């Protein structure tokens, strides 16, 4: 099968998300200028550079109470900071609860029964007990082609790691089993890993 996206795929559901998988989930926390905390998951998310460490996420829809975007992007544009909380399998239901379209004045931490704790390097909350959290300073927000498509880039200014996820000097992902997004309504989690050594490496 071949199709041009502009012509449509003819299938019951869009296959694009199912092709580009698995995708890590950035559980993005932000805060507006009035102090209201927001928390929302984004599966168009990844790390993009080592030095300095940088991340990105993309928002692809809008809410009626925000100006052609979602709360996360609006808050970050306003304050210049955000935090990426890493989602573990055990938090899958709480993560899903924070994907609800709630009013911009609603605190998703409270709505999902999560505890917010303050970040160290930025004025923002993070998810208490998350396996890891990346405190970020926004560097750019880029308008992408398409309605409401925005790319947020950030430099990591502080990193939290849960102590029980550090084993033998490594951040051990099987200790918490990171959640990943597949296509449609499907998710997966990482429970086992294998190692490959690049040619020429020792």
Automatic annotation (TrEMBL):
Domain of life: Bacteria
Annotated ranges, domain Flavin reductase like: 18-173
Keywords in alphabetical order: Oxidoreductase
InterPro entries: Flavin_Rdtase-like_dom, Split_barrel_FMN-bd
Pfam families for this protein: Flavin_Reduct
Example of a GO MF term: oxidoreductase activity
Record has Oxidoreductase as a keyword: yes
EC numbers on record: 1.5.1.-
PANTHER family reported for this sequence: BLR2425 PROTEIN (PTHR43812), FLAVIN REDUCTASE LIKE DOMAIN-CONTAINING PROTEIN (PTHR43812:SF2)
Protein name, as recorded: Flavin reductase family protein
Organism: Sedimentitalea xiamensis
